Amino acid sequence: MRRPVEEDAEAIASAVQASLSGLARWMPWAVADYDTEMALAWIRKKSDPTEEGFLILGPDDEIVGTCGLNRFDAMNARAELGYWLRGDRTGRGFATRATRLVARYGIEELGLQRIEIIMSTRNEPSRRVAERVGARHEGVLRRRIRLPDGQHDGHMYSIVATDGLPGPARNPA
Ligand SMILES: CC(C)(COP(=O)(O)OP(=O)(O)OC[C@H]1O[C@@H](n2cnc3c(N)ncnc32)[C@H](O)[C@@H]1OP(=O)(O)O)[C@@H](O)C(=O)NCCC(=O)NCCS
Asked: Best of 92, 117, 145, 147 to mutate for ligand 1, by most ligand atoms within 8 A of CB?
């Protein structure tokens, strides 16, 4: 994993374009006209210290997706963790490994006490990622997420600092 730089914008946009059929349902930003400018805006936003986004790299350093922390709540030392993968790079554990690394980074380096992973109750692949990393299921938040086809209930998973750190001792930065 590594942080994105502006030169990645084109590759990110093409990864999104290659994955629209799988992404659009769950990620409202994944629109049909997603382009390099939109990827650039995302990269620039990630240079803000309250946004942490990392590229997930496959063999040959190709961009296979992203994983990051957002919605920082400094007062409570809390943030949300999100991820997506190229449609043709699922089923290989990239999201699971990235989530472990980013959660570990958030707790060890940023001092977060609580990391939330929230997904639609209909998003089974995403729920399986949270389960695989050992996040704890805390319940279902009613009508928590607005997606293109309407309002969805959301599973609330959490990793907290006192759980013990997930995954290997490596920093993704
Ligand atoms: C959610 C999403 C990232 C999950 O992708 P994924 O490929 O299922 O997740 P992983 O990369 O962790 O891969 C796990 C799969 O690879 C398999 N796998 C292979 N090698 C593995 C390894 N070393 N470690 C873990 N899993 C491995 C697992 O068995 C699992 O397969 P299964 O789902 O059939 O049980 C993907 O579906 C996606 O991008 N969806 C659209 C965006 C989205 O919904 N994001 C989340 C919004 S809340």
From this structure: 92
